[in-house]
Amino acid sequence: MFADWPTLVNEFNNRLVGPLHLRMYMQPAMATILGIRDGVRDAEQNQPAYFWAIFTNPEQRGQLFKSGLRAVAKVLVLAVILDSAYQFVAEHWFHLWEAVLVGLTLAFVPYLLIRGPTNRIARWWSSRHHAQQSEYGAPR
User: Fold this and answer.
1) DSSP class of 49
2) What is the pTM of this model?
3) pLDDT tens across 111-124, in order?
4) Quick check: helix, strand or coil at residue 94?
5) Residue from 75, 89, 65 nearest 14 by CA
6) CA atoms within 13 Å, Cβ hemisphere of 77
7) Measured distance CA(108)–CA(115) in Å, rounded
8) Which of 39, 99, 138, 140 is 20 to 30 Å from 23 by CA-CA measure?
9) Are 16 and 10 in contact (CB under 8 A)?
């Protein structure tokens, strides 16, 4: 089912310079943008940091995970489709689990890693902004 780890790492590295290599940079960038958008939205709604909440709120874990997948579903599907195209062009073969693994790595991992810190930065920024407004009065 899966190749050994050195082979997977080598194949992943081949994707960085092979056909369709630009997707290896664009898809994490898109997932990062979506993570920033959702992190700011979480801060506005006073939600906990996303990745932390997945581990600490077992009653909301499923709902949080589904909302994250929904948010990056298009990028994730595009990542799997493009990796499938890469496999047909470069390897003349298709391995579904490789495509899914690459898709998750390119789309969902960056989203997970950026959404929570963005939430915390946005909360800090908002509290700092409100503190300045109360100190100097409302802007005119």
Assistant:
1) P
2) 0.74
3) 889 999 999 999 99
4) coil
5) 89
6) 5
7) 11
8) 39
9) no
